[in-house]
Every structure is written in structure tokens, then in C-alpha cells.
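PROTEIN–LIGAND DATA SHEET

This sheet pairs a single protein chain with one bound small molecule, flavin-adenine dinucleotide, given as SMILES. Inputs appear in the order they were entered. The predicted three-dimensional arrangement of chain and ligand is reported afterwards as a C-alpha cell string under its own label.
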Amino acid sequence: MDSLEKAKVLVIGAGPAGVGVATGLARRRIKPVILIDRHEKVGGVPALYKKKAGGVPTFVLWTRGRLVFGEQIAERLTDELRRTDVEIRLESQVVEVSPRQRSVIVVSPSGGRVQISAEAVVLACGAREKTLAERGWIVGSRPRGLLFTKNMLDWVDRQGLLTARTPVILGSDVIAHAAAAKLKSARASDAVMVDRFSKPACRIAGRLYFGRWTKPAYRQGAPAVSVVGGQSVSAVRLVDGTQISCDGVMLCGELVPNSELALMGGLQVDLAGRRLLVGSNFQLSEPGWFAAGNILGDYHGAQWCYYNGRRVARHVAKYLSRTGSRSQ
Ligand SMILES: Cc1cc2nc3c(=O)[nH]c(=O)nc-3n(C[C@H](O)[C@H](O)[C@H](O)COP(=O)(O)OP(=O)(O)OC[C@H]3O[C@@H](n4cnc5c(N)ncnc54)[C@H](O)[C@@H]3O)c2cc1C
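PREDICTION REPORTED AS:
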């Protein structure tokens, strides 16, 4: 039998959006608020981007006229949470949601399996990069050395290992450019960037920024590619038969909302884009369920997500006061 706990509000995801919601609720003196994340740190995606001495400052934000980097954003969010009485549960994965009962099942190494019910639940689970199958233009085997951005960051930043000396990046958006710069600063050669669009998907400002660290070679307009390799990646083959030799392939960008929990729970999701169906007050198809940040599917930077979290907190507070007055 699962142990049972209660909270006023449960926030799933301690990235910029989830922290925005939790601190927004704390400012309104709403408690207890439990903030859950499967990672060991607060900060979501920005927390994955370390800025090393001499390394490339990837994941950047302009805020109050200054450049701020991924790790610094995560530290700010952590500090802000420390000044509240939000209960933070890290290394805790939400594995099931029951919208009607307004409860979730959380699994963690320290706490085991726990059921938590709340008056309101906010999904702030972010977005993820599309899988190979979802992209639909990349075929071939899945040899060692085919990695998503997240895996690459883990290797390079956390373990100090270089994923590829001669990388090919499939994708050409800002995430792809950040990945190319990160690899170059870890002593890889400039990446070859292959994408199906006729022009790089990253805006000129992003290309200029990352151009200080890396000058990728572009192979745009590839309708399909095949990853070649036995045990390890050895090349990427284009439709015209050209092979680009490499020792690692990164699959970058092409985000999709992390809406799997909502889908599993029966909340309404547009299956084509995997977007949650939300009202103007960020409420989902079941009363008391809300969403914030990049799970909404518009893919904004960290700062937007944080302030969006604050807006969602306002709507959650209104919902609580409405339902509270009804039950009195
Ligand atoms: C690979 C990648 C690179 C990116 N690079 C940039 C960049 O360089 N610059 C930029 O501005 N934006 C970048 N983005 C966009 C980035 O997602 C946003 O800037 C911002 O981090 C979104 O905030 P969020 O809080 O909505 O989601 P996230 O930051 O993704 O946080 C979501 C959190 O939810 C947690 N979570 C998800 N599901 C569960 C679950 N079931 N149980 C428990 N916890 C869960 C995750 O562990 C995560 O910590 C990138 C996104 C990705 C995927």
C-alpha cells in the first residue's frame, strides 16, 4: 500500500516554470506547497549547462542588461526557493497522475512509493527533444555515439568526457549551435550541421553569438539522412549518397512538450503536437489541474517560463479561493 500525503498545491517540475509557480504561491502565503523533480538539482534544463573556466557560455539569457548562464540561472532559482517554505523533493519521479482524485504517485530512492493528493496540481514538466522516430527524417541503426543534447551535456560537463572528436549535428536551431559550441570548447572539431530546412533554423543573432566559438559547416535541405555504423557511429549518409564521416552524431532541438503524464492520466492532449489543451487561465481539462512553462508547447527561454509560472500561480490562487469559499 502506498503511503499517503497531502498538500495544498503540488508542482511537478523544478525548472524555471515550476520555481516561478512555487515562489508565486509562497508570496501569496499559500501552503503547504510541494515541488517535485526527478533531477538531483533545482533548475530544469538551465541546470544542465555548466560554464567551465575557458569554456563556452552556452544557455544564456539577457537579464537586466547582463548575460546570465545556465548554472547561474539554476543557482538563482535555488536561492529564491530557499527563502520560502516550499517543500522541495528532488530525485523524485512522478510516475502516475489521477486527475479526478487530484493525486499523483511519486517514486524516489529515499521515500519509496508515495501517493500525494492536493487541492491543485501544476504540470511544469518542460519539453524534450523528439526521438528518432518522431523526427521522421532520420533513419539507420542506433549505434553507440548517437546522442541527444542532454546526454552530450552529461558526458562533457558532468563526466568530463568528449562524446565525439568529429561530430555531426542533426538539427540547426539555437540548441544545435549551443551544442556545437560546447563540443568545440571541449576540443572537438567544428561540427557539420545537417538539417532538412533550406536555411539554418537558428536566427542570425544566435549564429553570430555562437560564431565566436564555432563555425559549423552547414548541409541544409537534406530531406532524409541515414546514420551509418556497426557498433559505433561512423558516418551520416545523405540522399544523394554523400557520406559525412564522423565519430558521433548529436540529435539536437525539435522540441515536443513533456505531456506523457497528462496523456496517461486522461487529461486532454492534442495528439498531433502533443500539446495540452489549456484554457486562458492555464487550467487543463480537469478542474484543479494547471500547466506552466514549456510544457505548454511554445518553447520559450527560461525567463519567459519563470514569469509564466508566476502568472499561473496567480490563477491557481484564484482557483483555490473560489473552491475554498464554495466549500465553507
Ligand atoms: C536540450 C534542451 C536545450 C535547451 N537549451 C536552451 C537554451 O540554450 N536557451 C534557452 O533559453 N532555452 C533552452 N531550452 C529551452 C528550455 O526548455 C527553457 O528555457 C526552460 O528551461 C523551460 O523551463 P521549464 O521549467 O518549462 O522546463 P524545464 O527546464 O525542462 O524543467 C522541467 C523539469 O521537470 C522535471 N520533470 C519532468 N517530468 C517529471 C516527472 N515525471 N517527475 C518529476 N520531475 C519531472 C524535469 O526533470 C525538469 O527539471 C532548451 C531545452 C532543451 C530540451
